[in-house]
Amino acid sequence: MKLKNIVLSAAFFGFSLLFGYFLAPKVNNYMGISFKEKNVAQIPGIGQILIDNSDTIAGKLMQFRLIDMGGVGILPDSANWGNSYSHNVERFSDVILSKEPFIDSLKFLRVKNQWENYINKMQRFDFNGIVFSGFLEFVLFDKVGNGYEIYPEGNVYRERHKVLKAKFDELFKYARYKNLKVYLYTDMVAFTPLLRDYFIHKFGKIDVDNPAFWKIYQSGLEELFETMNIDGLMIRIGEAGAIYNKKDWDYSSELYVKTDKSVELMLKSMLQTAEKSNKQIIFRTWSVGIGQIGDMHTNPKTYERVLSNISSPNFIVSTKYCMGDFDSYLPLNPTLFKGKHKRITELQARREFEAFNAFPLYVAPLYQMALREFVSKNPNFDGVWLWTQEGGPLRAGPMSIYPFHGFNLITDLNVYAISRLIQDPNQYLVDITKDWISETFGDDSLLLDTLSLLLLQSHQTAVKGLYIKEFAQWEVRALGLEPPPMLWIFKWDIVGGGSSVLSNIYYISRNNLDSAIDEGYQAVKEAEKYKQMAISVKTKVNKNLEQYNQLIASIDYQINLFKTLAYYRNYFLKYYQWLDSGDKDAYKEWILALDNFMIAYEVHQDKYQGNLDFPAYNFTEALAGIKIAGRSNTMIGLSRLIFILMLFTVFAGLPILQRKYSFYPLKSIGAMFWTALFSPLSSFQKRKGFCIPALGIFWYFLLILSSILVFTSFAAPQFA
Question: Are the C-beta atoms of residues 371 and 425 closer than 8 Å to each other?
């Protein structure tokens, strides 16, 4: 029996070692931090931009030149701006009523006027299509069953949809009159409560793998194609849910389409209707990691697999230009270089992750490079969907509502330049830039030369101030995920303070730490130079002087923000270097940088808190991290004390010491600790009425609690 036990124990031990040997690398790969170099889409330098090679590359007028809705229907609600991260832009919030008459006629006239002004502006830029967010709000489902199965006669949804359909079709008719096609836009799967109930009653669940499920939406689309002035439908399946849902508005969307089969069923049903009506279906590949199709957006193999069975002249695929969201330091999207489908790319004129254009941020050099690549490598690439307003939580940034309210100067510049590039991506960018300056501020040659040089370099400077190149240039994996390249500033304006984030940025940047720090200060110097340049030619401005003054104010904001961020970057990188190495110079540097940051932070808050054009960044989390950092020396001392107490707790009660020595200091306490740890339920002789196992167990509880408190620097939970 004894031999058997030994053999079984040895076998179990060997199996455990073998299992651990094979499992450990996989766990480490998943839990650990890994990084490798990525092929970043580089913003062309000023030397490249100034070279005129427009005559050496064949140009191309793109067939699809689409825009979003801009700021049409968005109220400049100054009282509630700056306090919401909701992605619902609250468009038409004061126009559409939940009860009869369902539309406020006077406020609709304001929206109609905005729409016409926006359409006229976009027509001048030679855009030929507009994407309108809406779908279910116009559908009666008259073609389902007897026509009243989903919305009974007299039902509030039926009556509301009739009114919305008639009123908004006036807008669509005007757009088409101005030669802009109209595409409705919806997330899938989209619901109203009655529609959801209908699906549950008919299919027993939301059954996206059932062709009959999609016949319902198909009938609704057919109804719209026959009765409204629209030219197609754009569909997104990768984002939906509460973050996009409107308060007190029971039209919603949910993520159900997650497989190859459900995508194919959805698209084939919609295309069948589109082909019959000679309309178009635009499918967005923004799948953001959800389900079987999760990497369709960036993986050419998945893209091909998911869409290989879709073939229609009425089918267009829309994809963001980069491998991810609208961050810098990302490669161009490889799915746009190949494929049999008509392709368009999505570009953002108002860069949400780069301060929403609250300071000079001219993206035309980057987008020109991307468009040239796509046009030259994919014969099926033929268009752009430009976002003039969309992207991110509108009310978390400046109150810039394009082109109606707020500081929209940089957005207008980007829209103008991109409108020229999609007519021919090989135009000389310097000429495009000077044409906009001439239209906006005047045609003095010194003004044109100085301001164009400023603008053409502005995106590179913004990237230096907002990103940490030594981190951003790497493809980083953590917990199986790839975090965004900015990271230390969490989307969109929250400056991070968490050790899990900042320590890993330090870890990846540590071999070039001085360069990572200097980059922030370099951005400040470049912004200060831009201010000097702008002021030097102010006397040459002969129109829109107020807007020019706003431009200078935006550069002031940039200088202030970048200086604050540069000190913060210096502080936390040196702080983690000190924790990592114990270097005394690093300690002095982070203390100095922290002092400078706190001064800069106070100035930043005093000057920009509550400013709706140039809003202060959110440093709440950063300040929490600073609070913890300030306790570091105390926590180091306490952690060493706890470690000594733990060693004493274990070694003072070792049985060999208890047997060998009749007496040594704290022998009885050591015995109590040992017994409480290894035999808490056993009884033993009390010594002097002191050695009670319960007290030992309480001691271990105190040690564990103290360790947790020290580990969190007595600051958890940090946020309510």
Answer: yes
pLDDT band at 56 (very low <50, low <70, confident <90, very high): low
Q: Which residue shows structure tokens 């994407």?
A: 131
The backbone torsions φ and ψ at residue 186, rounded to the nearest 5 degrees and listed phi first, read -145, 150
Q: Residues for the chain: how many in total?
A: 720
What is the rounded distance in angstroms from the CA atom of residue 671 to the CA atom of residue 687? 10
Token code pair at residue 276: 């019959």
Residues 6+ apart with CB under 8 A from 715: 624, 627, 628, 631
Confidence of residue 688 (pLDDT cuts 50, 70, 90): very low
Q: Are 423 and 126 contacting, i.e. CB atoms less than 8 angstroms apart?
A: yes
In sequence order, the 6+-apart residues with CB closer than 8 A to the CB of 223 are: 139, 140, 141, 142, 143
pTM assigned to the model: 0.89
DSSP characters over 605-637: HHHHTT-SSSPPPB-HHHHHHHHHHTTHHHHHH
C-alpha distance from residue 597 to each of 138, 354, 613 (Å):
53, 21, 23
Q: Whole-angstrom Cα distance, residue 473 to residue 40?
A: 7
DSSP, collapsed to helix, strand or coil, labels residue 295 as: coil
Kindly report, residue by residue over 575-633, the tens digit of the pLDDT. 999 999 999 999 999 999 999 999 999 999 999 999 999 999 999 999 999 998 888 88
**Helix-then-strand count for the chain, H and E:** 22, 14
The angle subtended at Cα 233 by Cα 228 and Cα 234, nearest 5°, is: 150
Q: Which residue has the tokens 């799948």?
A: 287
- Upper half-sphere CA count for residue 578 (Cβ side, 13 Å): 19
Q: What does the block give as tokens for 347?
A: 């570009």
Token representation of residue 418? 């991109």
| CA 355, 418, 307, 273 torsion-angle sign | positive
pLDDT at 550: 98
Output the average pLDDT for the chain. Answer: 89
Q: Which residue has the higher pLDDT, 72 or 30?
A: 72
What pLDDT does residue 57 have?
A: 60
Peptide bond between residue 101 and the one before it cis (omega within 30 degrees of 0): yes
Is 650 within 8 Å of 666 (Cβ atoms)?
A: no
> Tokens at residue 692, please?
């009670």
Instruction: Spell out the residues 6+ positions from residue 298 whose beta carbon is closer than 8 angstroms to its own.
Output: 323, 324, 333, 334, 335
Tokens of 522: 């370099």
89 pLDDT more than 90: no
Region 535-541: mean pLDDT is 97
Residue found under tokens 């879709």: 310
**Cα separation of 340 and 481, whole Å?**
30
